[in-house]
Amino acid sequence: MLFNSLTFFLFFGVVSLGYYALPHRYRWVLLLFSSCYFYLYFIPIYILILFFTIGVDYVAGIYIETSAGTKRKKTFLILSLIANFGTLFFFKYYNFLNENITSIFRWTHHDNPLPYLNILLPIGLSFHTFQAVSYTIEVYRGNAKAERHFGIYALYVMFYPQLVAGPIERPQHMLHQFREKHIFSSKQVIGGLQLMLWGLFKKVAVGDLLSVYVNSIYDNYQMNTGFTLCVATWAFALMIYCDFSGYSDIAVGVAQVMGFELMTNFRFPYFSKSITEFWRRWHISLSSWLRDYLYIPLGGSRSGKFLSYRNLMITMLLGGLWHGASWNFVIWGALNGMYLVVEKITGAGGSMTPAGSQPFFSRAAKAFFTFNLVCLAWIFFRSQTFSQAWYILCNIFHSSGFFTLRIQDTGLFCSMLLLVTFLLSIEYFFLRKAIFFNPVNGSIVSFKTIGFSSLLILLIILFGNSEGGQFIYFQF
Amino acid sequence: MRSFGIYLAGLFILVFTMDRLAASFLDCLYVKTMTGQSGGKINYYLSLPTPPDLLIMGNSRAYYQVVPDSFKMPTYNIAHSATDDCFQRGLLAVLEEKKQLPKTILLQIDPGQYLGQEGITRKNLNSVEFLRYYYGKNEEVTTLINNEGSTKKYLFYFHTYRYNGRVLTLLNNYFKTVLHPKQLQTGYDLIPAEATDSIYTLRSIQREVFPPAKFLSEYTTDLQSIISTCKRLHIRLILFTSPYFSRAMADYLKPSTDKIKLLCGENKIPYINYLELSLPGLSTSASYWKDPNHLNHLGAEIQSRDLSNRVKQLLDEIRP
Question: Is the Cβ–Cβ distance between B226 and B91 less than 8 Å?
């Protein structure tokens, strides 16, 4: 069930109404059943995998908390990690590893004895694995209590708004929310609905429109030259932002309608003035997960400069691999790691400086430079193969036919420009200042808010792609 | 709860009002637009005092490849890119309703659209959606669009949905019409030949893939409907298939063209199949091609001249 489908909106309406209609003590049952139903919409049998890891982590959490010795606690933690990462490895990385082994065997003129498995990746596996792992680690560290209620714990992993593509939550932030009684609040519900609309606009109107152009260029990359490939890469950068942040906005909005608060996953990343700042604004729930459970345990920046650079590279490489079982994702991670290391060495990363502290043009130039560095890495992310990425990279910087811009469909291209300008302007001038979607600021029922919501609906109807596909991050 | 009620009511009223106002404004522009594929070409054709003798229908391989001026009779090219038989069926229904039917229809068909794999859902172009303006206005178009998906009809509660994805194109075409109000049109647009054409074409055929597929007669429903409509309305129908640069593509499509030949034979409809006919230079020189599936204007002129001769010969032979 996709967030951009009519079925989902019916489902959402029924669940939200049911949630407020039911007495508090039965609400978790409704949420758990609806989350199961939501998941069953994809590949039903895979719900067994989900319940397997939920069962393991539930038991492990209790044993970690109740065990006396550190060694015993660690044993249960390791068992939980094996169950979670083992499942992730089997479904996501086994065939990738196998292909690489086959290449090595072929090189030595031998046959690979390992079979190729014809399996589909369970939807959202990487997301709920990381969320489940954060639970057992936090219980082990003593930062969260083990959840004794199986239903509530299952809900922590399966809560449908964030089940398939995050935000990757933490037990301290989520578990208590399932126990709290949420009373209907107009401000909260309207804020949530507005956020859902904004997310839907980003996905259906902007992202899906950009994807038509990006696919037409990237799928025929050999027929295109310099500036066209460059524009398509910029378009991809915006497309993946609209797709993923659109999903996150809908997820946060859906949860907010029912009174839940999910963490913010994106904070206008393309206005970042350095890569360091970019990673504080892009997929925040993943980057903070990697920081807390990988970078810091590796030693972080405490063990000298060289080791901190190494830790950063390992974190970003694994972060890249998390996105998909392909060397292109590893390269994408490596490039971002390199950027961060260079910024650390040169001190260019700095901190998130307040908007007024630098002249506008200086900030704009830095943001544009950062955006292009990010785009350079996105080439590897979007390309199907390394050779495709390399070809695009070489041809972007090739002078032959550089200024030939292949537009394909003028109407589509102009719509793209119009919507991207609208999106970035709204984000820059209004959303950064929390003028919309903020239940605290001003009156939620004003002509301004109703007008903005209506305008979004109209733009979705006029420009939205009703045949648009699924969200990109579902595949991770 | 009261605030939420006010918000919902306000949203409903404002969306409804904005939708209807925007749709009325776009409707006004649409009916005055006489150029471009997003309705203008159809409007221009419908505005002609008398329908032409010959009407060319099909997709981009007719739109950019069949030059109406090559035919020695009043001819109009109403073909639309990225369309299949479903669109042509809907368009024919519109022309019938508007009583603007030609004597002869030269319909380009892509044999690939009848190929598929049993048990696998057909890849749908949804091309009938190019006729969204006629949703609710023409019964056949409405039915065809509703058949695209069970939730489709709900989108049409918003009147502006009829212009989904086409607002800027419509504005552009409207202003073109305003700037050149009396321009005579044939409906044809050329793809100018460029120096890089042959490189693109030769590169592209190296990347061609042919998924296993066979002819599925259920995919010819729309074509059969077009045939029966033409019979009912006494319109002479001639089918043709444009050439492909790649020989492998022609071989891949052969099972489909063989079946179409049989279908045409049964219905006494002439079928000009350029996958089996050789045109001077087209199969050997990539410089006539924009890509392996589309001729540039040089290639289009060669195909049109030949097509014109063949059509003339056929019209002399066949009777309505």
Answer: no
State whether ipTM is beyond 0.90.
Answer: no
Q: Do A6 and B14 touch (CB under 8 A)?
A: no
Whether residue A150 is found in the same domain as residue A221: no
For tokens 């979705």, the residue is A460
Domain boundary among A140, A164, A181: A181
Residue A19 lies in a domain: yes
Range of the structural domain that residue A442 is part of:
187-273+353-475
Pairwise CB contact (< 8 Å): B155 & A223: no
Q: Is A323 a catalytic residue?
A: yes
Within the 448-467 window of chain A, which residues sit less than 8 Å (CB to CB) from chain B? 449-451, 453-455, 457-458, 461-467
Residue A464 domain-assigned (yes or no): yes
Q: What is the 3-state secondary structure (H, E, C) of B261-303?
A: HHHHHHHCCCEEECCCCCCCCCCCCHHHEEECCEECHHHHHHH
Q: What is the dihedral of CA A311, A312, A315, A319, to 10 degrees?
A: -170
Confirm or reject contact between B313 and chain A (CB < 8 A): no
Nearest to A463 among B10, B165, B204 (CB): B165
Residue-wise pLDDT for B39-71, tens only, equals 899 999 999 999 999 999 999 999 999 999 999
Tell me: the pLDDT tens digits for A216-252?
Answer: 888 888 777 788 889 999 999 999 999 999 999 999 9
How many structural domains does chain B have? Answer: 1
